Amino acid sequence: MMKAVLSNANHPEYGVATIPLPVPRNQYDHCVALLEALEIGDASEADCRLDSLDSAWPVLNQLVCTKVNLDELDYLAKRLDSFDVGESSQFQVMAEKLNLTSMKELINLTFCCQQATVITDFSDLEQIGRDHYMNLHGGCASMEELERLDARKTALDLILNDTSGQITPYGVVYDNGTMLEQVYDGRHFPDFYYKNSMASVLLSLNNQMNKQETLYFPCAESEITRTLCRLGATQPEKFTATLIATDDDISPAVRSVFEGEYPLTEHLKTLNALSKCLQLFDAQTLDKFHTVFDTIWPDTPEEILWIAENIYDFTVI
Question: Phi then psi for 190, rounded to 5 degrees?
Fold first, then answer.
């Protein structure tokens, strides 16, 4: 969806790294390695110079020649990738109207831009009125409400009487009182389910519940390390890990082993590796895995992973 060209501002002679955004899961470790070779790519600091950005969002071009963080770029790209056409317009016009220039502000905008009304075509007053009504009501309205709504009158009232409208290169915007809330604090990413995951784990720094992030398995191993680094959780005893959700393919019996006497803080990579295995299994292999599990009844997370990695050595009759 996007391509970012990143370099080391202090050592341009090192060359550049071209990073696809959102970063594909199977390329994340490679992208991190590319940046490390340039002596950039810190887990939390913005130390990558954005030389160019190829994207469908021209408003993001203001980030070019500034310093950015890989994971912030990746998170923003994931948020934008989930937008429909209307949300994309809302994001661009509000970023332009508010003159947002930082990654933190742009990420926070993705959580509230849906409140704004954007007009790019004045010929369809009915649609403008319906869209505006929906925006004012959190994007939700019953069929009965929409049938009772005089959409044309709503649109004309907005265009003729609301003086807050502002012209931007991406359309006329009415912010409807949109407030830029600090959902993202500039370090710990808010929960966001971008793609289907086998398991999600909430990581929290001990005695600091405002410092937490969620990992979605399977993920790249370096993503686990970088998330813990942002939290300041370099040792297992410094944080807690809670298994908050699992796919139906992970049975309650399997889940109980990771939630039992073995601290999940010490078995994050094991659960991640298990998730990678199970996600690749077809229905027959998955059924076989659970049959072998119920027969052997492993005691430790490592034994469960061993079964998954060697499942084709078993025969179930």
Answer: -65, 155
pLDDT at 236: 82
Residue bearing tokens 């199977």: 26
- Greatest CA span in the chain, whole angstroms? 75
Range in 41-45, 180-184, 231-235 with the lowest mean pLDDT: 231-235
Using N-to-C axis directions, what is the helix angle for 268-280 and 221-231, rounded to 10°?
A: 140
Q: Which residues make beta-bridge pairs with 203? A: 213, 241
The first and second tokens of residue 191, run together, are 């929960």
Which residue is it, tokens 């399977």?
218
CB 193 within 8 A of CB 216: yes
* Burial (CB count within 10 angstroms: exposed 0-12, middle 13-18, buried 19+), residue 188: middle
Residue 18's nearest CA partner among 27, 26, 190 is: 27
R_g (Cα) of the chain, nearest Å = 24
- Per-residue burial over 155-166, b = 16 or more CB atoms within 10 Å of its CB, e = otherwise: beebbeeeeeee
d(CA 247, CA 225): 23
Q: What is the pLDDT of residues 71-92, one digit of tens each?
A: 999 999 999 999 999 999 999 9
Q: At what angle do helices 252-259 and 283-296 cross, to 10 degrees?
A: 60
Residue 133's pLDDT is what?
Answer: 85
Residue 200 scores a pLDDT above 90: yes
Enumerate residues 6+ apart whose C-beta is below 8 A from 59. Answer: 91, 92, 95, 96, 170
Predicted TM-score of the model (pTM): 0.91
pLDDT, tens only, 122-136: 888 988 998 888 888
Q: DSSP H helical segments within the chain, as ranges?
A: 28-37, 70-81, 85-97, 103-109, 125-136, 143-148, 151-161, 221-231, 252-259, 268-280, 283-296, 301-309
